[in-house]
Amino acid sequence: MTHGRRLLAKLVAAVALLCAGAAHADEAIWRNHMATAAEAAKRGDHAAAVQLYNAAAKQAQVFDANDVRQAATFYGLAQAYRAQHEYAPAEKNYLRALAILEAVNGVTHERNASVLTGLADLYRVQGRYADAESYYKRELAIIEKTHGPEHPAVAQALSNNLAALYRVQMRRAEVEALYLRALAILEKTVPATDSRLGLALIDLAEWYQGLQRHADAEPYYRRGIPIVEKLFPPAHPRVLLLLNDWGQVRQLQGRYAEAESVYKMMLAIIEKAQGPRHPNVGVALNNLVGVYEVQGRQAEADAARKRMLEVANIPFRVQPYVPYQGR
Question: Is the pLDDT of residue 162 over 90?
């Protein structure tokens, strides 16, 4: 090799190293923007997240048009815009991310599912239900193709997405069918104490209760509450609400002893976790007043009411006794 050729080879190698170094620096800057944007979104500073994702998008222009890093940037930007209720730019960026992923991976690839869900969620909050349904169904088809029709991920998509959409539209038969299918999948595929199973049971219980189908709701509360309450700290509002609803369901069925048992359980949890004078004690006591009065147990109702008013710092007045006449 002549001296000129050797020099040219060295120059080419040097340029390649410089380009590689520049490319590495570009990616490092992009990654930094993406990481700080994600941190801003996590702490709820969505305006900062939008700014940082836009900086990442500008930096990502050095990548190929169909580079998946472009898709990741557009998806993050869409999420940040949606969190700020800026729906038009959110939709634009979801669609840009989806177009890249479909070009790279094909239209039925698993990686497309999150973007499809994001678009569907966006359309749902805008009341664009037909569009939301279309994208939820596309996401569901991908999950079923990837994992099979009897996978927990399918159950999650059925209950969290399509059923939630149909609930808004009061498509009652379809909601019930989806919840039941999701529950059947989870009963076959996860342990009896799995949180996903517990939440699926509560979905059905709350749906039936909202329809005043109390007898249908009760067994799902009975199975679901012991699972779900383990997901939260003692006296968490979610657990207390479930216990309150379960007691109400039993009371409305005339199962007063069982309702009383649930209300006393609720009261004990509150007293242990929050103390005997917490406002939630008053809520539980008020439930007990109701279940005592409907049975004509006025002395016990008065005692519970007196304590309830003491918690609220309101003077107690004895209620006139009215003989119980039945339901």
Answer: yes
- ∠ CA 273-276-280, rounded to 5°: 70
- Angle at alpha carbon of residue 37, lines to 33 and 42, rounded to 5°: 155
CB–CB of 275/254 below 8 Å? no
Q: At CA 153, angle to CA 148 and CA 156, rounded to 5?
A: 130
61 to each of 48, 54, 103, 150, how far by Cα in Å?
20, 11, 17, 41
User: Interior CA angle at 163 toward 240 and 193, to 5°?
Assistant: 50
How many residues in total does the chain contain?
327
**Residues with Cβ < 8 Å from 216, sequence gap 6 or more?**
208
304: which 2 tokens?
């519970």
Secondary structure letter of residue 63 according to DSSP: S
Q: Calculate Rg over the CA atoms of the chain.
A: 29
**pLDDT digits 0-9 by tens, 223-238:** 999 999 899 887 888 8
Cα angle 315-318-319, degrees, rounded to a multiple of 5: 120
- CA-wise closest residue to 205 among 176, 164, 238, 233: 176
How far is it, in rounded angstroms, from Cα 151 to Cα 232? 25
| pLDDT of 8 | 43
- What is the tens place of the pLDDT at every residue in 102-117? 999 999 999 999 999 9
End-to-end CA distance of the chain: 106
Cβ neighbour number for residue 226 with a 10 Å cutoff: 12
How many Å apart are CA 33 and CA 4, to the nearest integer? Answer: 43
The whole-number average pLDDT for the span 271-298 is 91
pTM of the predicted model as reported, rounded to 2 decimal places: 0.78
Torsion of CA 214, 216, 220, 222, to 10 degrees: 60
Please tell me the distance from the alpha carbon of residue 222 to that of residue 82, in angstroms, as a whole number. 37
